[in-house]
Write a structure and sequence with these properties.
The protein is mainly alpha-helical. The chain has a domain of 82 residues: Herpes Virus-1 (2-Layer Sandwich), CATH 3.30.40. The chain is built from six helices and four strands; from the N terminus they run H-H-H-E-H-H-E-E-E-H. The strands form two sheets. A two-stranded parallel sheet has the order 1-3. A two-stranded antiparallel sheet has the order 2-4. Helix 2 crosses helix 3. Bound molecules: zinc ion. The site of zinc ion has 8 residues, from helix 2. Zinc ion binds next to helix 2.
Length: 127
């Protein structure tokens, strides 16, 4: 196969080896590979975007910078323990009526979070 034919073949295809996805017009990779690469090179940024999207979908406001979020996940070891098990950490809002701000988030386990939902305890509310 000559070079011209090879170029023609690769046009519109993702540049990742073995990937058969279609690249997006402004990139050499398909959305799936771009996504995967983001996850590898900027994992906190990837989690932050995911978190913001999630919050937005649930109508919650996020008033956090990436630097604040990075500090939070580093201090709380959220990235290490996040997941779907009972003991995984999730990001909780301390005051439920407020959005995700730097003073209103904490990392608690999923089991703590769900028991909080079922059995609302107002005893530590100062007013
Ligand atoms: Zn791809």
């Amino acid at each position: 196969m000559n070079t011209k034919a090879r170029q023609k073949l690769s046009r519109g295809k993702c540049s990742t080896k073995y990937c058969r996805g279609k690249r997006v017009h402004h990139s050499t990779k398909c959305p799936k590979c771009r996504h995967r690469r983001r996850k590898e090179t900027d994992f906190v940024g990837y989690v932050f975007d995911y978190f913001k999207q999630n919050a937005k979908r649930r109508g919650k406001c996020v008033d956090l910078t990436k630097a604040e979020f990075t500090k939070f996940v580093t201090d709380s070891e959220y990235l290490k323990f996040k997941g779907k098990t009972k003991f995984s950490l999730s990001i909780d809002r301390i005051r439920n009526e407020d959005g995700y701000t730097v003073n209103n988030i904490r990392a608690i386990t999923l089991s703590e979070n769900s028991s909080k939902r079922n059995n609302v305890d107002y005893s530590d509310v100062p007013f």
